[in-house]
Amino acid sequence: MDADAIEEGRLRWQARYDKARKRDADFTTLSGDPVEPVYGPRPGDTYEGFERIGWPGEYPFTRGLHPTGYRGRTWTIRQFAGFGNARQTNERYKMILAAGGGGLSVAFDMPTLMGRDSDDPRSLGEVGHCGVAIDSAADMEILFGDIPLGDVTTSMTISGPAVPVFCMYLVAAERQGVDPGVLNGTLQTDIFKEYIAQKEWLFQPEPHLRLIGDLMEHCAASIPAYKPLSVSGYHIREAGATAAQELAYTLADGFGYVELGLARGLDVDTFAPGLSFFFDAHLDFFEEIAKFRAARRIWARWMKETYGAKTDKAQWLRFHTQTAGVSLTAQQPYNNVVRTAVEALSAVLGGTNSLHTNALDETLALPSELAAEIALRTQQVLMEETGVANVADPLGGSWYVEQLTDRIEAEAEKIFDQIKERGTRAHPDGQHPIGPITSGILRGIEDGWFTGEIAESAFQYQRALEKGDKRVVGVNVHHGSVTGDLEILRVSHEVERDQVSQLADRKAARDDARVTAALDAMLAAARDGSNMIAPMLDAVRAEATLGEICGVLRDEWGVYTEPPGF
Ligand SMILES: C[C@H](C(=O)O)C(=O)SCCNC(=O)CCNC(=O)[C@H](O)C(C)(C)COP(=O)(O)OP(=O)(O)OC[C@H]1O[C@@H](n2cnc3c(N)ncnc32)[C@H](O)[C@@H]1OP(=O)(O)O
What we know:
By secondary structure, the chain is an alpha/beta fold. It folds into 2 domains: 68-467, Methylmalonyl-CoA mutase (TIM Barrel), CATH 3.20.20; 493-557, no CATH class. The protein has 21 helices and 9 strands. It is globular. Bound molecules: methylmalonyl-coenzyme A. Methylmalonyl-coenzyme A is lined by residues 20, 66, 68, 72-73, 76, 78, 80, 103, 105, 107, 153, 155, 157, 186, 225, 227, 230, 234-235, 276, 278, 318-320, 322, 353-354. It comes from Streptomyces violaceoruber. InterPro entries: Cbl-dep_enz_cat, MeMalonylCoA_mutase_a/b_cat, MMCoA_mutase_a_cat. Heterodimer of an alpha and a beta chain. One of its GO terms (molecular function) is cobalamin binding.
C-alpha cells in the first residue's frame, strides 16, 4: 500500500476515534509518558499488504473491532463457574460480581450437559460435580436469585440440551419480571464441536441442526442482543488440535451455522451478529496472538465475500477466550498461575472480547474459592497495572506476528478447501441440503475425519513431549520441590441426595396433565416442522424437567453414535 493510502486510512481511523467514547482512565506509561491509541507505519512509509492489516475498527478487523481498542471498553472478565446445587453456585456468582467480574458464565454438571435429570440412574455420582445441577426452571430461578438478569450478560456453556436450558433461563427472567427481549448473553449451542471433539451430543446431527435453526430464528426475531451460538474451538484445541486446526475447524463450523441461517431464509445481517466465538489461549504466546488476529480477518472476509454480509457487526468476529486447561499441571500446581497469566496476556494482545482465566487447581478439581479469586485477580492485574489496555493491537506490524498471522491464515484456508472437497464428495451434484461447508462438516463427522486429524496432532505432540523436544516444567524438566498442598474443593454427595429429593417434591407438586399436554405440543412441532421454541417454553413453564424434554426428542430423533475409528 502506498503512503497516501495508508495516511488516508489513518485519518479515517482518527476521525472515528475522536468521536468515540473513551474510558475515563490514564493512558500513559508507568513512567508517565503519553502513548498513542494505536501505532502504524511512519508517515511517508509504504507497507506492502497493509490492506490486510489496516486500522482498528475497520475491515478486515485484523487489529480489532473498535477504533478505540480497549480504551473504549476493556474486555469482559467472565469467569466460568458452577458447582453443587443452584444455591451454592448463586453464592459463587455473587462473590464473582462483588469482586469485579463483568459477566456471568454458567458451568453445568455432567447430567445436565447430557440432558439427564439428577434422578436418572446414569446421573448417579455425577450430580453437581463438574458444574451446577439444573433439572427444571425452578433451579434456574434459584441460580439467578437476586441477580437481575436484565442487567448482567450471562453465558451458558451447554450444547446438546442448549435449547431447553435456554428456555429455562427465559422463564427464570420472566419470573424475575424481566422482559426476555432485553436479555443479553451467550448460549454455547455449538453441536458441531461436540461431534468433532467434546462428545457431549444427544441427537442425530440433522434434527439437531434444525433445532438450532429454530433457536437462531427465535433470537433474531425476539431477543436481538442475545447470542445463541458460541462457536467453540476451545474443546477442539484441548483435544489435541494444532492452533491452525483449532482456528480452521471452528471458523468452518461458524460458516456452517451461517449456511444454516441462510437456508432458513434469515437475513445474514440480522442473524450473524448472534454468532460469537470461543477460543483457547495456549502457551505459545506469539502463535496464539497471530491466531486471534487471523480469526478476525478470515471471518470478516468470508462473511463479506462468501455470505454477503454488509454491516460491520455481521462481519465482526467477537470472541471469548479461556486459558488452556490442558497446559496446567498437577505437578507444582502454583506454576499454573504463571502459565495462565502468559496465556491471558496473549488473548488480550490478540484483542479478546471476553476472558476466563483458569484457576491453579483446575487439573485437580473445580476451583476453590481462593484459587478462583487468584484467577480473577490475574486478569485485573493485566487490566489495571500493565498498560496493555492503552494501545490497540500493540503487536501489529511486528514482522514475526504479521508473518505468523499470514501463515495461520494460509493453513486455515487449506483446511477449508479440504472440508469443501468433502462436501463435494458427499453431494457431487452440488445440491447441498444446507450449504457446501455444512455438507463437508457433516461428512467429516460421519467418516471420523476431524477426530482422526485431531488425534494425529495430539499424538505428534505427545511424542515430542516424550522425546523431550517439547518441555513442560515439573513434568519432563525441572522437577523440583514446589509441592502441591492445595485445599481442593470437594462437592458433597449430599448435593445429589438433596437434588433428587427436591426433584421428587417438585414433580409431586406440579400439574402433570399440563406437563404432558405441553410435551405433546412440543413433539407435534418437532414433527410438523414448526418452530419449537414456543411449545418448549410452555413445557418449561409447566416445570417439565430437562430429562423429560430431551427424552421426548431422543425418542423422536434417535441418539447419535460415533463412527468407529482406528
Ligand atoms: C471449557 C468449558 C467447558 O466446556 O466446560 C467452556 O466451554 S467455557 C465457555 C464459556 N464461554 C463463554 O463464557 C462465552 C462468552 N461469550 C461472550 O460473552 C460473548 O459471546 C462475547 C464473546 C461476544 C463477549 O460479549 P461481551 O458482552 O462480554 O463483550 P462485547 O465485546 O460484546 O462488548 C459488550 C458491548 O460493548 C461494546 N464495546 C466493546 N468494546 C467497545 C469499544 N472499544 N468501543 C465501543 N463499544 C465497545 C460491544 O460492541 C458490545 O455492545 P453491542 O453488543 O451493542 O455491540
